[in-house]
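Before relying on records like the one below, remember that each one covers exactly one chain. Contacts with other chains, cofactors or solvent are not represented anywhere in the record.
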Amino acid sequence: MRVLFDQGTPAPFRQGLPLHSIETAHERGWATLRNGHLLQAAESAGFDVMVTTDQKLQYQQKLADRRIAIVVLNTTSWPRIRSAMDDIASAVARCATERFIEVSVP
């Protein structure tokens, strides 16, 4: 799957998703895009999943109309995310059938 990391998702997490093609919003030149504009750009570019730390996204955007799946992390802390890489990788894999997944990182 093609996976986009938003600005809050630590780039080193890409090592936890070796079977997927990972790009960041920054690498794509989308660092200044927010919410709906970022989702639209990601869908237009053919991304399957966006990993975000924006916990308010589901309340700010109408996600039911989106083709892209969303995985929301509750932290931007790389040490915490690193310790939960297997859980997050599992959530990304489930995006083939689920469109919105929240991962609570301890």
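The chain has a mean pLDDT of 94.
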